Amino acid sequence: MDTIKKLFHPIQAEIMRMPIPQSLSVQLHKFYRKLSGIFRNQSLNVFSSSSDNKSIAFSNVKGDANLILKIKTIWSMSLTDPVAVVVQENLKSEIKGEIPTDNPIADKKLTEAQMNKLADYCKTIQKHFYFPKEIEYVVNKGKILITKANPFTDTVSESPKPIIQNRQTSKVLIKGISINPGIVTGQVRILNKFHVNAKIKRGEILIIPNLNKSLYGKMKSAKAVVIDSILPNSLSKALFRRDFQIPTVEGVKNATKLFQNGNVITVNGVSGEIYSGGLVY
User: Fold this and answer.
1) How far apart are CA 70 and CA 91, in angstroms?
2) Looking at residue 36, what DSSP letter applies?
3) For residue 234, is it within any domain?
4) Last residue of one domain, picked from the residues 45, 67, 89
5) DSSP 3-state assignment of 172?
6) pLDDT tier at 195 (50, 70, 90 boundaries)?
7) Residue 56 has what DSSP assignment?
8) Cα–Cα distance between 227 and 254 in angstroms, integer?
9) Nearest-CA neighbor of 174 among 279, 247, 267?
10) What does the pLDDT read at residue 157?
11) 116: phi > 0 → left, psi -120 to 50 → alpha, else beta; which?
């Protein structure tokens, strides 16, 4: 690995040395002026976003020249995987907080209009991701702004003041034991002795009788995994969590017989429940 990194050094140096395309430079200067204001003294946060959740981040970046330098630095350090470079205004927040999208709770510091707006954002974000997120928000100049959407890995506590009260729950078909958290909806793909060579399409929910390392290659495309049996020991579970960070439920007896290919189900990796269809709002 160190040898490979050394091979990248000349490429990284060339990226830092070469100017960026003029058309991109014009756009960056334009949007920098828009974010930094008339006096251009607003600091920005610049960070990368990739599928492996590893981020390169620079905070309190001031000046358009420094902004371009940080963007080029991220490019030079991200040669093996595609990344998105995010430039975010460093907001001065009047109010800030965190809230789960699954059950947003009224914040006494917010006005009724702001709470309603926050509830709308929670609903939109959860519909987009198909499962709950833990979002961070700020109030800037009276407006609610969402600054971050983090993975939701805990159960939502009961609250006497939920904002969203019209959530419809689908029928629970069967329940197992959670290995990995998260809630996703997708089509079923069964992989057993009758479907040994079945091809897993990206975004499908894989249902298998037991976990076998020979299946790992096919599981990379799955959105979630449901297992008939229970993994033999805690080490197996730890290794699985390390390799696959997708909603997973084990001990779902006869799941390979209960479902058929193409069925649409929702896997709740927090509670271990399997629902018919998707979660409706």
Assistant:
1) 19
2) H
3) yes
4) 89
5) strand
6) low
7) -
8) 9
9) 267
10) 43
11) alpha
Residue 145, SS3 per DSSP: strand
Query: Number of structural domains, the chain?
Result: 3
Distance of CA 196 to the CA centre of its chain: 31
| C-alpha–C-alpha distance, residues 258 and 123, integer Å | 31
Question: Which CATH number do you get for residue 27?
Answer: 3.30.1490.20
pTM: 0.44
CB neighbour list of residue 86: distance below 8 Å, 6 or more residues apart: 45, 46, 47, 48, 49
| Burial of 133 from C-beta contacts in 10 A (0-12 / 13-18 / 19+) | buried
The residue range of the domain holding 48 is 2-89
CATH assignment of the domain containing 143? 3.30.470.20
16 band by pLDDT with thresholds 50, 70 and 90: confident
Instruction: Find the angle CA(188)-CA(189)-CA(192) to the nearest 5 degrees.
Output: 130
CA distance 205 to 46: 35
Do 31 and 106 lie in one domain? The reply is no
Q: Is 147 strand, coil or helix?
A: strand
Cβ atoms of residues 275 and 266 within 8 Å? yes
pLDDT at 87 over 90: no
CA gap 203, 222 in Å, rounded: 5
Q: Are residues 190 and 213 in the same domain?
A: yes
d(CA 59, CA 88) in angstroms, rounded, equals: 9
